[in-house]
Amino acid sequence: MSIIQSCLLPVFSPPLHSTPSIWLDEPYTPREPLKGSHTCDIAVLGGGIVGVTAAYFLMRKKIGKIALLEANTIASGATGNNAGMLSVDRACDYGRWCDTPERRNIAKTTLQISERTQRLIRDIITEHDIRCDYKISGCAWVPTDDAGEQAASHSLTAMQEDGFSVLPLTQDTLKALYPHARDLYPGYYFPNHGELHSARYVRGLAEVVEREGETIWEQSPVHAFHPHNNGMRLQTAQGTIDCGEVVLACNAYLSKLLPSVASIMRTYRGQIIGMIAPQESLMRMPLCSETAGKRPIYYGRSLPNGKIIFGGGRGEDQKTEEAHAFDKEAMEPVQAAITSYLHTYFPKIAALPVTHRWSGTMAEPKDSMPLIGPSGCFPHTTIIAGMCGNGMGAWGTASAEMGANFVASDRCKAPHPLFDPKRFGL
After folding, report:
1. Selection from 266, 293, 415, 276 nearest residue 352 by Cα
2. CATH 3.30.70.1230, domain 132-195+265-365, yes or no
3. Is 36-80+199-264+367-424 CATH 3.50.50.60?
């Protein structure tokens, strides 16, 4: 190979030693794969927060037999590789969305949907006693410079004017919440936001669905689906299932089934580091933060098991994170960006021993709005995907509810037009 040829090759940093996420690093026995020929009324593809929750809401509607198919194991995708923070979308840049009444209304709608997700998750956990370390801890938005502080003040005022429960975060409160942090600026916080063990929550919800008599198959990737006998037929390596309606809730992996999706939806990774924490409390509330008044965003929280996790930094190498969207290995320079952020603002946390490094795949449509509604390309098909990197806390549960309501209404009760997949010709 010539020197010129070698210079033209993309240069990627080598993978670091990766581990399962903290949520997936515990014993789990997957269900059997789909084998043979089966039928159901509604088939849901995807065993993450969206798919399992959609199956749950459809089960509650009692409109027919539900079957869920997961390519790997329940919660093994983005759901089991996030930070377990129930944080809302648009909170970080609400003020920037207030430049026109139309954009402000979009931001308000988004935040309202996010808050509905929070309430729905809390109610589901309470009703079914799902053991997932859930607690209402609040979530802080913390800038790191003067420009960020001004933007946060603008966002805080706008959100309060629009009726959201958000409070100012003073320097005294910052010192109490993060006693060993430095150079953080006043921002705001949402007192009613929660946190949980994301894999235990979704796997617990899957058990609820199964106890009600619905069927779940794991290790069953669907490689084809097509119209069949006034419904749809799904094919896996070992079997088929015929259904009246199919719900595509596989988020980033939707592009594997529908290649046309790749042109309207970016897929990328988020990376996280897990560390052993000392006995003293270093973080008393989960936080989100951005540097220099721009992305990348960083986020972190303490866990009940004596760990601290921090993630973010994707903007430091967006091209690599998109090129390696479906890779599991943690990679530089994003891991280095997370470490650098910690050294700058949380030096005591930066010195902690690292036990886990992992990544998760996310998907975001071009307009940063999820896809919820009927497919214009396939009959009897509803799409719930593209959770914009915030499926756990903001979009997933409320989107699943909207999608389930649409299916249960004989496709008459369409979700909000902002989310209609037909806006991209899907």
Report:
1. 276
2. no
3. yes
Mean pLDDT in consecutive groups of 10 residues from the start of the chain, 426 residues: 31 66 97 98 98 98 98 97 89 88 94 94 98 96 91 94 96 94 94 96 99 98 94 98 97 89 90 89 89 73 94 84 83 90 95 95 92 91 92 92 95 85 85
Domain boundaries, the chain: 36-80+199-264+367-424, 132-195+265-365
Give the 3-state secondary structure of residue 44: strand
> What whole-number distance in Å separates Cα of residue 166 and Cα of residue 337?
29
Give the residues across from 382 on adjacent strands.
247, 374
**Model pTM above 0.90:** yes
Q: How far apart are CA 157 and CA 176, in angstroms?
A: 23
SS (H, E, C) 110-145: HHHHHHHHHHHHHHHHHHHCCCCCCEECCEEEEECC
Write out the E strands in 277-370: 287-291, 294-302, 307-312, 354-365
